[in-house]
Amino acid sequence: MTEYIISHENGAQYPVRNIYCVGRNYAGHARELGNPLLSEPVFFQKALTCLTTADSIKLPPDRIIQHEIELVILISKPGEGISADNSMDYIGGVALGLDLTDRKLQNELKDGKLPWFLSKSFKNSAVVSSFHELDLINWSEKFWLKINGKVVQEGKMDDMEFDIPFLIEFLSSRIPLLAGDIMFTGTPKGVGIVHKGNVLELGLGASVLKTIRIT
Ligand code: MG
User: How far is ligand 1, taken at its centre, from the CA of residue 23, in Å?
Assistant: First the structure.
């Protein structure tokens, strides 16, 4: 069986199990798509086979794909009914990632009141950097996405509508979590189209955590 492995800077490697994503977790992005904010977080999933840690990727031809930079949390031990207060015990690391999205298809599916799944799940649609310790001081710095050297998105953990402890509490109250589950925690405003040949840099503060080329 093919495993989808992510690496931690401490040398650990984890086979990923499920890819969970949060929608509408930053007010600016909800506004730019014309979506109301909700009183509870909205979750969806990507197929595991969409995950990539590669330095260059191909995207499906004939589709218009948008970038969404996000903080991505690694769950390092199984749990259910986790309280927000205990949630840090379940976080094995944090990365930057791209929730790549076929926005036109997503809008068509939303208009038809159908699941978004295929607009979010295609090969290479879940990009992650290596994982790092969740040091709340460092990770409260701005994270950003540059395309060809120009900043196109930036955000801060503090700007989330639902913070990471609450997201873990909420999701684990509905479904058991597994070691190796990862969670994309939502994107700040500034989503836009990626083109073949673009070089994308994902960074936090002054550090670049991942560079990826669209080929
Ligand atoms: Mg997203």
Answer: 6
Q: What is the per-residue pLDDT for 42? A: 95
Average pLDDT over every residue of 184-211 = 97
Q: How far is the CA of 1 from the centre of ligand 1 (A)?
A: 28
Question: What is the residue extent of each domain of the chain?
Answer: 5-144+154-194
In SS3 terms, 11-61 reads as CCEEECCCEEEEECCCHHHHHHCCCCCCCCCEEEEECHHHEECCCEECCCC
* Ligand 1 centroid – CA 86 distance (Å): 25
Amino acid at 25: N
Pick the CATH number of 5-144+154-194 from 3.40.47.10, 3.40.228.10, 3.40.50.1820, 3.90.850.10: 3.90.850.10
pLDDT band at 1 (very low <50, low <70, confident <90, very high): low
Distance in Å, CA 177 to ligand 1 centroid:
20
* 146 and 194 Cβ atoms separated by less than 8 Å: no
Q: What is the pTM of this model?
A: 0.96
44: CA distance to ligand 1 center in Å? 9
